[in-house]
Amino acid sequence: MLKGDSRKMREWWLLVGLLCIPLLAVYLHIPPPQLSPALLTWRSAGAFFTFRSNNIFYRETYGAVGSSDVVILLHGFPTSSLDWYKIWEPLNRRFNRVIALDFLGFGFSDKPRPHRYSIFEQASVVEALVSHLGLTEQRVNLLSHDYGDTVALELLYRSDHNRTGHLTINSLCLSNGGIFPETHHPRFLQKLLKDSSFLSPVLTRLTNYMMFSKGLGDVFGPYTQPTDAEFLDMWTGVRFNDGNLVMDSILQFINQRDEHRDRWVGALTSTFIPVHMIYGPLDPVNPHPQFIFLYQKLVQRSTVSVLDEHISHYPQLEDPTGFLNAYFSFINAF
């Protein structure tokens, strides 16, 4: 075969491959897994409210009698309010009301597409939930993780600047969130998806349970990995309402963190609201010691709890006892 013919043949096969990728992606878009008993129980214990024509899932329980304290739990990416299940009951014994939601595009909440997901909108979702529950005048405690940390910082900014509809924040506890772009290391697939390239629609369809569990497992410690059932529940939450197809849109939050760093880091460094950081130091997304050194340097009024060295990016799931001890020490100190 002539050299020119060989080159044309390679180009032809490349073109065939490129044409087949979308077809393969469509083929691999298999139905989502059925809800497990644990997920069915979690959903049946919750409710929905409407935000801008979208249904938002939330769960609320009443606990400690004689207390008026309220805690609102803000979950991370790409999971859901189920992230808090291991610490829910102890929180329920400490607080009068424990509230969590699935952000728009996550868990059991609606996942509109196309849609421009943003941290600003998610903060408005939280404010709308607080209003829906009649807590507008109530001082609330925010407990957040990962993506939820950035939503919490937007809520903090609105509160400290007395914006219309803002929460009255009593305290803020963050955990393992990429609040500083300069120390944040998103996973490889996240980098690909966040840039909204022409590959994004293909990649979101190609992502499957094995890829998901491998990627998520990498941000858990080697001795604190989720069980197979927990991995499957997390994946089912993503796939529910075709949530995998909006992941590229949601991941714009990484770019938003860069663009609005001064707003959100500024809110954190200037607030007089009590702030605490619970940190799993094995976190590859916000690595030790760079992240915590920068945090302590910039957020000098905050207290910090560094958990055991084998705890990684999901401390509330990996070490619920250590996480709760750290949180209760903070919340009971004022």
Automatic annotation (TrEMBL):
<keyword id="KW-0472">Membrane</keyword>
<protein>
    <recommendedName>
        <fullName>AB hydrolase-1 domain-containing protein</fullName>
    </recommendedName>
</protein>
<keyword id="KW-0256">Endoplasmic reticulum</keyword>
<dbReference type="GO" id="GO:0005789">
    <property type="term" value="C:endoplasmic reticulum membrane"/>
</dbReference>
<keyword id="KW-1133">Transmembrane helix</keyword>
<dbReference type="InterPro" id="IPR000073">
    <property type="entry name" value="AB_hydrolase_1"/>
</dbReference>
<comment type="similarity">
    <text>Belongs to the AB hydrolase superfamily.</text>
</comment>
<feature type="transmembrane region" description="Helical">
    <location>
        <begin position="12"/>
        <end position="30"/>
    </location>
</feature>
<dbReference type="GO" id="GO:0046464">
    <property type="term" value="P:acylglycerol catabolic process"/>
</dbReference>
<feature type="domain" description="AB hydrolase-1">
    <location>
        <begin position="70"/>
        <end position="318"/>
    </location>
</feature>
<keyword id="KW-0378">Hydrolase</keyword>
<keyword id="KW-0812">Transmembrane</keyword>
<dbReference type="Pfam" id="PF00561">
    <property type="entry name" value="Abhydrolase_1"/>
</dbReference>
<dbReference type="GO" id="GO:0047372">
    <property type="term" value="F:monoacylglycerol lipase activity"/>
</dbReference>
<dbReference type="InterPro" id="IPR029058">
    <property type="entry name" value="AB_hydrolase_fold"/>
</dbReference>
<dbReference type="InterPro" id="IPR000639">
    <property type="entry name" value="Epox_hydrolase-like"/>
</dbReference>
<dbReference type="InterPro" id="IPR050266">
    <property type="entry name" value="AB_hydrolase_sf"/>
</dbReference>
